[in-house]
Write a structure and sequence with these properties.
Helix content: 25-40%
Number of strands: 15
Radius of gyration: 23 Å
Mean pLDDT: 96
Shape: elongated
Strand order of the largest sheet: 5-2-1-6-7-8-9
Low-confidence stretches: none
Distance between the termini: 56 Å
Strand content: 25-35%
Number of helices: 8
Structural class: alpha/beta
Length: about 300
């Protein structure tokens, strides 16, 4: 097939890379405009743009998807299909209906579950046992198009958003290549989705979502730590300094201490009381310092039992 690819972040770049290695011809990469990053405000290209430039593929970065010149630019390539993965903008009907095979989307959940921008993080935050990838025929709704194919992935007990991201990107690329072949050969089926999603909208994660509420049960906090890894990171404060927790385990414990109180801080364990149960912190990071295992951290930071996380 002759394809136009639309995507922006690393997840999309991995799908794009797999297409570049396939038998399909990539005509153009459409990605969001460069955005300022960091304190310098220097413009940073998307991961898809960087991958396209390395491969010598033309890049198109429209400011407005509904602008006539956007349609004309994409139409000029004459694609058989447009592949979309985490593009980040609403695609108008005119472009959805432009190619012979329409717009095909790679979505990182088992639709109709987790429609929205952050399905990977929410599957971990909610403690799901499995998730997966859906290849979908796009329509004007938000992740509501017909399902063409799906593949399940088991969520490991210590799965983080980062590790699950890697698995889903790899599986999404594999499933997409297989599905495109089925579409070309007329073997692909399309199953309409129900009108309502089976979960709440998987909204975009914000930095504030990583703030730890110590009154929650230990199980919920452990899910937060894994779900916010690596961005924005699950965080709290000790003596006015930001502390990120990167890895922890749920343990039982006497509920006598107030939530957020350090129960033990020695060479054997760093444990904190929660609203129900305790967590044993395995890896953490103090503001301005690098990530450390708890025992190495405690050798350089005088935390002790009785201290409490908070502002």
């Amino acid at each position: 097939m002759k394809l136009v690819f639309m995507g922006t972040p690393d997840f999309a770049a991995r799908i794009f890379s797999a297409l570049l290695d396939s038998e399909h011809e990539i005509l153009c990469a459409v990605t969001q405009p460069d955005k300022p990053k960091g304190r310098s405000g220097q413009l940073q290209p998307s991961e898809v743009k960087e991958e396209a430039l390395r491969a010598g593929i033309p890049v198109f970065q429209p400011e407005k998807m509904k602008a006539p010149e956007t349609f004309d630019e994409i139409a000029g390539y004459g694609p058989d299909a447009i592949i979309v993965a985490a593009y980040g903008k609403i695609i108008p009907k005119s472009i959805l209906e432009l190619p012979k095979y329409g717009c095909i989307n790679v979505h990182a959940s088992l639709l109709p579950k987790y429609r929205g921008a952050a399905p990977i993080q929410w599957s971990i935050l909610n403690g799901d046992e499995k998730t997966g990838v859906t290849i979908m025929q796009m329509n004007e709704g938000l992740d509501t198009g017909d399902i063409i194919s799906q593949s399940e992935i088991i969520i490991d007990k210590k799965e983080t958003s980062d590790s699950l991201f890697d698995k889903l990107a790899e599986e999404g690329a594999r499933l997409l290549i297989k599905t495109l072949k089925d579409i070309e050969e007329g073997k692909a089926s399309r199953t309409p989705q129900p009108a309502e999603s089976t979960t709440e909208y998987a909204r975009m994660i914000t930095k504030e979502d990583g703030r730890i509420d110590w009154s929650l049960p230990a199980e919920k906090i452990e899910l937060l730590v894994r779900g916010m890894n690596s961005w924005p990171g699950a965080f709290s404060f000790m003596d006015g300094k930001n502390v990120k927790i990167w890895d922890c385990d749920v343990i039982s414990g006497d509920p006598g201490e107030a939530a957020g109180t350090i129960v033990c801080a020695d060479k054997n364990a760093l444990t904190v009381q929660t609203g129900s149960g305790q967590i044993k912190i395995n890896e953490l990071q103090l503001q301005g310092k690098k990530r450390m295992a708890f025992d190495a951290f405690l050798r350089g930071c005088r935390w002790e039992a009785g201290m409490k996380f908070g502002e």
